[in-house]
Amino acid sequence: MRLALAILALVSALSVPARADSAKELAEGLGKVVGAFTATELYVEHCNRKDPAKAASRRDVLAGWSHGNKRASYDRLMQGLRARIPDLATQLGRERQRMSDLVAQEIATHPARCDDLQAFFKENKQLSVGTQVSRLTRLSARLGIDIPAAPEIVPAEKSVESTRILRLAALSARLETRMAEIGSKDGGRRMSDLSRAREDHAENWLAADGMQVLFGRVTANDELREWRGDQQSAFKVECSSFITDAHKQRMAEAMHQDRVVVGRPRSVLDAHTGGKLKLDKCSVFTVQETGRPFVEEEDKAGLMPRPLEESEAYAGPNKGIAVSQIDRVLYEASFNNRMDGFGNGYVDRKENIYVLLRDGTAYRHQWSFPFTDLAITLSKAREPERWFTWGERNGQVTLTSGGDKNERRTIEIEKAQKLRPMRPRSLQASYYYLQVGMGGRRQDRRYRFAADGTLVYHRSGFVAGNVVTSYIIVNGPAVKDVTARYRFEDYALVVERDGEIERHFFAVPESADGALPDTVLVRGQAYWLDKK
């Protein structure tokens, strides 16, 4: 209140054609806004003096809070007011000292305040002033006070000769260095406001840097990401648009090949699983076509483990999780009817298979081949998010992820079916898979088993196979109505055709009885018995 009265006296002295109520509104609003920004800064300062060890995390909290409450707009607002009201800076200095004494007393009385400033700032609604900052900026302009506009970012002009090719790993390292100027990556994972502040800072830096000339591997029709052995760049590039349709076609035709993409930065997304840089007006070249050298700099900080491809995750028949190590296999599923934004009905189908091992570890299996064929060492190194420890209490299984204590996840499995292998015999049945996705798109697949050991099915995508005694990986185009021989082996449906052997994950609910199970799990998805 004291600050508001002082500001009212200063604002009232302005020689502007304003009503008294407008001056009062501006003064009262400024009192609240200035009080909020000053208080949060003082809490961080005093807590850091009391407990310096957590200063970095409190810096993250303040950066996130400041961004969420429009710090940049607040700074421009105060710049305009100080220029028009010379005595304002003196009054603000006095008020800051008074508030500093109050905050110090508050912390001495309630030292636990410093343990979680993020929660404290969030719980105190009077500290949420972002909307007021915008309103006061508009009001000040109506009162004739000049508020500086946001600085315009002018992209750097680079000559073709001076622009070198930057590897995406190097760009990823540069981006993280820039974002760390605002706050830490770990803090950004916990606080969405801090994450956005980091992204905005990176976007402004890239915009000023101008045209980007980046090297990586084409991993989708509009996507580039550098691969380096079992690692990849922390950031990928996504082209929002292409300079011509010809360059769009060149990108599509270069799938899984290294290319150079040139484009204007549009936005930055910093995510736990890796970031994304969007570019506008992309053009696509080979390294030779550019005629440019690479930037040579340390870039290990811009690399992260590359997720496994299915061909890498497949180790070979029975070279993965041994059946003797398994405590149980659980299947958890939900099938919910929903509507998309265009009025089309679809099924939100979610299926998870968890392999619980006797040593207390667990694995979430999502590949099409059986987990008995999994490359375990590679899986633990490059898909650690699929590995857990597990425990059971009152019939409920709990999975706990690894990693730092603050990042551990738990999954409660309450309604799951136990799975078992198909008994080694032939079938006389047809099982179908039907899925209606968003937009009304249908997927129909079928496995037709005959008692004489033949199978007719639809095959597409990854195939783990062999020729004679040497196993190979086959990634072929979709083939319909394939006829082959089949047999069951633990959790595998082994299919043999023209000298090739495929191994599909196959299991049935433990509760299934009778000659034919109503449901079977093939390649991780439920297929239903066609009773017709």
Which descriptors apply to this entry?
eight-stranded antiparallel barrel, five-stranded mixed β-barrel
How widely separated are the two ends?
Answer: 80 Å
Averaged pLDDT: 86
Percent in strands: 25-35%
Strand order of the largest sheet: 17-18-19-20-21-22-23-24
The total count of helices amounts to 14
Helix content: 25-40%
Q: Describe the sheet with the most strands.
A: 8 strands, antiparallel, barrel
Q: Specify the overall morphology.
A: globular
Poorly predicted segments: 460-477
SS-based class: alpha+beta
User: Rg, please?
Assistant: 31 Å
Number of strands: 24
What's the helix and strand layout?
Elements: H1 2-12, H2 20-50, H3 55-68, H4 71-84, H5 88-109, H6 117-123, H7 130-142, E1 166-167, H8 168-180, H9 185-190, H10 192-209, E2 212-220, E3 223-225, E4 227-228, E5 231-233, E6 235-239, H11 245-253, E7 258-269, E8 275-285, H12 287-290, E9 303-305, H13 310-313, E10 326-339, E11 345-357, E12 361-365, H14 376-382, E13 387-393, E14 396-401, E15 410-413, E16 417-420, E17 429-436, E18 442-449, E19 454-467, E20 470-489, E21 492-497, E22 500-509, E23 519-522, E24 525-529
Parallel strand pairs: 1-2, 6-8
Antiparallel strand pairs: 2-3, 2-7, 3-6, 4-5, 5-9, 7-8, 10-11, 10-16, 11-12, 12-13, 13-14, 14-15, 16-22, 17-18, 17-24, 18-19, 19-20, 20-21, 21-22, 22-23, 23-24
Helix pairs in contact: 1-2, 1-5, 2-3, 2-5, 2-7, 3-10, 4-7, 8-10
Question: How would you explain this protein's 3D organization?
Answer:
The strands form 3 sheets. This protein has an 8-stranded antiparallel beta barrel with strand order 17-18-19-20-21-22-23-24. The chain has helices at 2-12, 20-50, 55-68, 71-84, 88-109, 117-123, 130-142, 168-180, 185-190, 192-209, 245-253, 287-290, 310-313, 376-382, and strands spanning 166-167, 212-220, 223-225, 227-228, 231-233, 235-239, 258-269, 275-285, 303-305, 326-339, 345-357, 361-365, 387-393, 396-401, 410-413, 417-420, 429-436, 442-449, 454-467, 470-489, 492-497, 500-509, 519-522, 525-529. Mean pLDDT is 86; it is low at 460-477. The longest helix has 31 residues, at 20-50. By secondary structure, it is α+β, with helices and mostly antiparallel strands. Helix 1 crosses helix 2 and helix 8 (168-180) crosses helix 10.
